[in-house]
């Protein structure tokens, strides 16, 4: 299991099986945990919420409020508000029930193992198979409550088998209680790599990271309800909490605040993060790229090597925990939802990838230093067409290749033996990795006044993104870009490191930056839209220009380069050469031999276009006047003038205000400049769906309806 993810977790529900029989052997007991993991991997929020709706990533499927979150911040026209939000929205439907099914399975494991006559011996001889299973159950249950607290806020707390309650419990109490359970469970667990335990299971490494995540939650800002009584919010011992309030929304009975004892939780997180980063074995930061090949491609990018292992179904040592998906049996949605786009059909070379997430252009053009080796690994401007060809993306905001600059960490083209059927790639979803915990340790140090230690941790992650001879210079530039503020430097590094990994949105919430970003980033998008309309391009301080048009040409990559799948752009590559037009940006192209894959499938090879497989791009980072002699010369060489930035505000060559709105003023459009000036609490939560309210008697807060009547 250390090198393969091709076995789907599968387990029947043990609910109808006698507990004495199920927990009479390790094998049958494991079926309960496998069933819980299987439910967790298909829980579904990740691509819908966590990878979208922030100042780095966004939805590719248009801003449909009832798909993607609270209407106040995430969607539609300005008039679409929390009060008329569809509480039967597709993205929340059934999620509440699924999470409580997982919790019920975990409770069954916990209660049955803790009822063993020899439980004291199991604990005293830990780690062993039974103690580890107990620890995994505690960690998975805590993970569910952590997720639900971020998405729903306050929920029902059930921590015993067959417990029946509809009582709403405050999230701070739940998180502190669950944190205490995980702290007690951590010594019971195997570390990653011990006793055949790897990142497809929750290990001691994960427990330590989860404790830190829960500490960061309690240290951070959240929007809480004010309609539940002054003493509703308590700590894990039931003592009422006090808060440092940033702002309130009296009409929606909400406040955006952090606990007054917030710093204590950063202090509490440090020993656990230090233990994982320095003491607990099994996980390491990837800092060496071991690759080379006979075609003399350039590699030397350890950041990409980490994700290449994920693409190739290898459980990389940097991963703390990943959700596993089956290869060749369907249901593997990582490449489909979050991977590099493909406009092909359900079967193709490569198969269709819907690519539900993309980024704002300025993430690609301005946020990243041009020398940062993470940029091209994380994002791409090209997609695939299912016929073995590379094609350019556009800005139509529908699906597949219509998100402009899109995600690139997961790409079926990079698999050694890819499937030609969508949702069969078998790639796992990374849920926690070493770089996250290193940067969390850096932040905890900085928040508690130890900037020297914070800098040591920050540089570990920062430096691997740059060539050795410029890493010091680039680190100094990072600090200068945030005025020397260590906390801000760490948060910016997190923006760069975790594109497409679902961390930025929650980082904005917990750090208290959410309201400010809502108005300032939207204003920037509007300003830049005016600039590109007026000048034909946007000029960025790092020298990049984002133009209305680029020039593209399909080329036989095998003839020009000796290969089709490109890697790291070699230093000094001239973008205005035939090779440079294929190699910049890096980490794109097509699988080296889709023909062989198709032939083995019995596919009609005449339907593929392998001779013209690669896309040469000119003018991607600098403006070329469409009427200039240079443009005419490129067209004479076979390059085609291709819409690029202009697609953000035109449709079929004509100005379209709705398209412009989607790429600019729609950003968190329900949270207005006036709301920010009045310091209104942002409503980023998801409501309980109508059926949950009906069956439990719970009432939604934050201004949401509680029924669809």
Stretches where pLDDT is under 50 for at least 5 consecutive residues are 1-17, 62-72
Work out the helicity level. 25-40%
Compute the separation of the termini in Å: 50 Å
Largest sheet: 3 strands, antiparallel
Q: What is the beta-strand fraction? A: 5-15%
Coarse shape: globular
Q: How many β-strands, per DSSP?
A: 20
State the strand order across the main sheet.
Answer: 4-6-5
Question: What's the alpha carbon Rg, rounded to whole Å?
Answer: 25 Å
Count helical runs: 28
SS-derived structural category: alpha+beta
Mean model confidence by pLDDT: 92
Q: How would you describe this protein?
A:
- The chain is α+β, with helices and mostly antiparallel strands and 709 residues long.
- It is built from 28 helices and 20 strands.
- The strands form 9 sheets. Strands 4-6-5 form a 3-stranded antiparallel β-sheet.
- A hairpin with a 4-residue loop joins strand 5 (243-249) and strand 6.
- The two termini are 50 Å apart.
Name the descriptors.
3-stranded antiparallel sheet, 20 strands, disordered N terminus, 709 residues, 28 helices
Q: Strands, helices and their partners?
A:
Elements: H1 19-22, H2 26-41, H3 45-50, E1 57-59, H4 65-68, H5 71-74, H6 95-114, H7 119-124, H8 129-151, E2 155-156, E3 168-169, H9 171-185, H10 204-219, E4 222-225, E5 243-249, E6 254-259, H11 262-279, H12 302-311, E7 319-323, H13 334-338, E8 357-359, H14 361-367, H15 375-378, E9 379-380, E10 382-384, E11 390-392, E12 406-407, E13 429-433, H16 434-447, H17 451-463, H18 471-481, H19 486-497, H20 504-510, H21 514-535, E14 537-539, E15 545-547, E16 549-555, H22 557-561, H23 578-583, H24 594-600, E17 614-618, H25 629-636, E18 640-643, E19 650-651, E20 654-655, H26 657-663, H27 673-677, H28 690-696
Antiparallel strand pairs: 1-8, 2-3, 4-6, 5-6, 7-13, 9-12, 10-11, 14-15, 16-17, 16-18, 19-20
